[in-house]
Amino acid sequence: MRIATLGISHETNTFSIVPATYEEFEKKEIKRKNEIISHFENSNYTIAGYIEASKKFNFELIPLMYANTGPIGTITKDAYDRLSTEMLDMLRNDGPWDGVLIANHGAAVSDEFPDMDADFTKKVREIVGEETPVGITLDMHANISKDTVKNTDICIVWRTCPHLDAKVRGFKCASLIFKAIKKEISPTQFIEAPPLLVNIVKQFTGQEPMKGLVKECIDENLLDGVLDTSISEGYPYADVIEMGMSWITITDNNPKLAERISKKLSKQAWEKREELNKPVPGIDEALQIAKNIYMGPKPKGKENFVPNDGEALEDTKKSEHSHLGPIVLMDVGDNIGGGSAADSTHILRRAREMKITNYLQSLYDPDVVKECILAGEGSKISISVGGKTDQMHGKPIILSGTVEKIHDGKYEEHRPNHGGFRFFDDGKRIKFETNDGMTILITSKRSGNTAREQMYSMGIYPENYKIIIAKGVSSPRPAYQPIAGKIILVNSPGVTTSDLTFFEYKNIRQNMFPFDKNAKYLS
Hints:
Elements: E1 2-9, H1 22-28, E2 29-32, H2 34-40, H3 46-57, E3 60-68, H4 77-93, E4 99-102, H5 116-128, E5 134-138, H6 146-150, E6 154-157, H7 166-181, E7 187-192, H8 210-220, E8 226-232, E9 246-252, H9 255-270, H10 283-295, E10 313-315, E11 327-331, H11 346-353, E12 359-364, H12 366-375, E13 380-385, E14 397-407, E15 410-412, E16 423-425, E17 429-434, E18 438-443, H13 453-456, E19 467-470, H14 477-480, E20 486-490
Parallel strand pairs: 1-3, 1-4, 4-5, 5-6, 11-19, 11-20, 12-18, 12-19
Antiparallel strand pairs: 2-3, 7-9, 8-9, 10-20, 13-14, 14-17, 15-16, 17-18
Helix pairs in contact: 3-7, 4-5, 8-9
């Protein structure tokens, strides 16, 4: 039994001015043939699940090509044409196939195809034919269309945010494709996509309301005849018609049951639409909370002071004044995992004005990295860093301090992390200690804060800091929640801000909550 695997994984922020060119994919990763196996086999990513299934069920997994780049702007026509042509030629020329396993993200937009994933799966189907089972495993932030579901036999979505089950869900997809090839099952899929968005700050599946919605989804998977159930949170920074939440049910040749379950789960979420879109604190409020904990008394008469939205503040340790772990502020507006610039200075500027010390964060600035390398380790210099990608993420900020360490930027993480990746590359990077008590990790590649090894490999021990800025919303949680005293989500400005009124949407559905507070859902 021969099953091919291939994929283009991209989360497209259509509001980003940084295009996803072919060169951007090359910088991140383009893997071919056996490179795919060696790169992913010991990871926790989707393809690792495919590999594990091939061993358990004794089928031959044939790796063709996989391309990925960090979430940035729209994929250029040149990039999609070059990547898809090479992959699809491999699929066409190296067959015949008993099945196909695709590893896409599910929120890809190209210059030519607003629903790139649908176009890609359509072309795969045209090559292998209607009788060859095709499976796809998608990120929980996928914007999934009916066409993508129609073009596949098995469409499975990760169920955790941050994403810790990519391998598990990849294995599930591969196992169902194997059973479909063996004629042990006859999969039937149904997708329901209500006019509903869940704000990025409410997408953590370890907390209500998403925690309950995921449980309801999993419970339906226990019914007889149900092969799988998926809930997709969607990706709000893509201005496309399929943007939003969706539910997919796969049954064993029971289309009515699949439809009933998907619609039932959608209705349950619709009833929680207000909870799914509650706001979180702004920069000043969040920094003041952190400062109060470590640097001053609690506000008088407010012994249990929390932000306006109590759920935005997660207590992992209960002491208000002991240093039982850093306060981790999630910089929502500069969420690299959502396609942001990685060089926002908004929080840093206010933290300095508030004279906050014992503070750690990263910034993307390749020019400053070069400047520091030229100065050399141990040099005391002043730099103008950050705020250079666009006009949304603040202005460059002048810092004076010491170039403590220069590093090539490559590191390997074996701890649990968002997406299950193993190998990371920040590009050339600098540990910069400011004269006013801050540690800044300056990178030459846009890098999120999804692995603590990012810091350890630089001789930085984040658990020793009082305040850490993590550029993300949910993706840094697996790395930082184990050491955090508190986690606070911050509604900061930027191309991934949680204040969606900042963006001008032109292509999404008109009857869409929360943009239309009077939106109706008639399933």
